[in-house]
Amino acid sequence: MTTCEAETPAPHAAEVKLIARERAGIINPMYDCQPAGAQYAGIGIRDCIPLVHGGQGCTMFVRLLFAQHFKENFDVASTSLHEDSAVFGGVKRIEEGVMVLARRYPGLRVIPIITTCSTEVIGDDIEGTIKNCQKALKAEFPEREIHLVPVHTPSFKGSHVSGYAECVNSVIQAIARKSAPSGKLNLFPGWVNPGDVVLLKHYLKEMDIEGTIFMDTEDFDSPMLPTKEIDTHGCTTVEDLRDSANAIASVSLARYEGDAAAKFLKNEFEVPFHPVDTPYGIQNTDKLLRELSRVTGKPIPDSLVRERGIALDAMADLAHMFFANKQVAIFGHPDLVLGLADFCLELEMEPVLLLIGDDKGSQYKKDARIKALKTKAHFDMEIVHNADLWELEKRIKAGLRLDLIMGHSKGRYVAIDANVPMVRVGFPTFDRAGCYRHPAMGYKGAMELAETCANALFAHMEYTRNKEWILNTW
Questions:
Q1: Of all residues in the chain, what percent carry a pLDDT higher than 90?
Q2: Contact 66, 52 (CB under 8 A)
Q3: DSSP states of 97-154 as a string?
Q4: Contact 58, 113 (CB under 8 A)
Q5: Cα dist. 50→111, 333, 411, 447 in Å?
Q6: Range list of β-strands (E), 333-470
Q7: DSSP-assigned beta bridge partners for residue 354
Q8: How far is CA 4 from CA 1, 7, 8, 13, 331, in A?
C-alpha cells in the first residue's frame, strides 16, 4: 500500500435516520389539533356546517386559520361549552345546536359533530345524543333528511392531519350506501389546496374519466360577483358521498389522509382500493397517471405528455446550474413532505432534513416511501417524526447548513432569523399571496414549484450579494 493510498479516507456511506423528537414538550408547534383537520374536511362538503362540541376557541381560532389561508369566510358552528358542562356534561348543547342550525339553514343536509379534548374527557355520549337529535329533527322537519355524523377528534392525541382523515372516514361511513354501479372513480387526494383539486379534475377530464374528488374544495376560491353574493363552499355533495360505495375503484393519493376512507369502502362495499404515492414531482405524477389508466382502461392522452415535456424542460433549465447539491429542509404533513423530498431529488437538491408531525413511529418505519429514500439518497438525511419547529431551529443553530427551507408560514421566523430563503407550501400559508390557488401536485405543480424555489434563491443571491452576477449570464 502506497503512502497516498494509506492517507485516502474511506468514502462516507450515506445514512438516512428516522428518529422521534426526544423532548416531552412542544416548542413552536408546526401542527394544529385534530378538530382543526375535521373542520377542514367538513367545510369541503356542500350544504354542510360542522358543529364543534367544545369551547368557542376550538372554532374561532380554526376559522381564523382558514380565513388567513384562503382570505375567505367559512361557516363553522360551536356548542360553546362553559364551566358548568365540565360538571354536568354538554350533550344538551349539542341538541340545541343541531336544532338551531336546522331552523336557520333550510338547505342544510350534513352536520358533522366534532368532539374536542374537553368533551372527550367529560365523556359525552355523542352517538346517543345523535339518536335523540334525529328524533327531534324528524318531529319538527319530517320532510328533511339531515345527516348527523359523529367525529371523535380529541385534541390530546393526533393532529389536524389525523383529524382530517377521521372526519372524511366518518362521513363516508355514515352516508355511503350500496346501490347500482356508478362507473365513477373515487379520488382521495388528502389535505390539498383548491389549485391541486383543479389540477386533478383537469387530469380526469383529459383522460375522459368520470370521477369524484373527496373533498372537493375548488370553490374555496370564491369569485366576487355583480350580485354581491358570497358563494364560498365545498363542492362534494351528499349524493357524491352516498355513491362512493358504488364506484369502480378508490385511488388514494395520501397514506395518512385518504387511505382510511378508501379502505373502509373496500372492506364494507368491495370497492377496489389503489394507493399511489402523492403526486409531487414528475415520477410520482407518472405513477398516478399510469394507475388511473390501468384502473379505468383509459389511455394517457398526448396533451398530458406535452404538459410533462414542458415541465421537464423548465426543470432542466434550472436543475444543474442552480439546484445541484443545494441542501433543503422540509416540514409539514407526512404525505406532502415525503412527496416533496422526491421532488427535490429530481431537481438534484438534497433534502437533508424532513420534519413530520404525528407520533406514528411504527407506521413510518413501514412506509415504503421512507424505505425508498434510503436507497435514493447519496447524502445524510434525518427524518424526525412527532417534530416541532424547534427541531429545525436547533439544528440550524448547531451548524446545519441549509440553502432552502420548504414549509408553511409558521416557519417564517426560523427562516428569517437564520437568513435562509423559504418557499411556502402546505397549510397554512398566509404571508404570501395566492398560494392556495396554485397547484403543487402534478406536472404543472412541479414546474411552478421549481420556478418558485429558483426565484427564492435568486432573490436571496441579490440581497446577500452572493454570486448574483450569475443571473446576468444565465
A1: 85
A2: no
A3: HHHHHHHH-TT--EEEEEE-HHHHHHT--HHHHHHHHHHHHHHH-TT---EEEEE---
A4: no
A5: 5, 23, 29, 36
A6: 350-356, 381-385, 404-407, 422-424
A7: 330, 383
A8: 8, 5, 6, 21, 43
Chain mean pLDDT for the chain = 93
Q: How far apart are CA 392 and CA 62, in angstroms?
A: 25
Residue with cell 494509506: 6
Q: Nearest-CA neighbor of 449 among 281, 297, 334, 324?
A: 281
pLDDT per residue over 79-129, tens digit each?
998 877 776 778 999 999 999 999 999 999 999 999 999 999 999 999 999
* Euclidean distance between CA atoms 385 and 334, whole angstroms: 9
Count CA within 13 A, CB hemisphere, residue 322: 26
Cell (9 digits) for 59: 372554532
Contacts of 297 (CB under 8 A, 6+ apart): none
Contact 280, 446 (CB under 8 A): yes
CA–CA separation, 458 vs 44, rounded Å?
37
Angle between helix axes 194-206 and 302-316 (nearest 10 degrees) is: 130
Q: In the chain, what is the straight-line distance between the N-terminal and C-terminal CA atoms, in Å? A: 46
pLDDT in tens, 187-219: 999 999 999 999 999 999 999 999 999 999 999
